[in-house]
Design brief:
mainly alpha
Length: 76
């Protein structure tokens, strides 16, 4: 029973993190496209800021993956 609960916790951790990362990247990308459409002369700066934001958003998803792998393999 304990192994099943650990697996469920790992699955929920990565599922929520991946979903939140996808929503965050979608919102950030949408706002960046809107900003580029309004002011095309600063599109390069907007793109650089967008890439930085995407990196940090994806880092949280990777941290959740590490936590879920630790749950699966470290607590057997």
């Amino acid at each position: 029973m304990e192994t099943g609960i650990i697996a469920l916790g790992a699955a929920l951790a990565i599922a929520f993190a991946a979903g939140a990362a996808a929503i965050g990247i979608g919102l950030a990308s949408g706002k960046a496209f809107e900003a580029s459409a309004r002011q095309p002369e600063i599109a390069g700066k907007i793109q650089a800021m967008l890439m930085t934001a995407i990196v940090f958003i994806e880092a949280t998803a990777i941290y959740a993956l590490v936590v879920s792998l630790l749950l699966i393999f470290a607590f057997k």
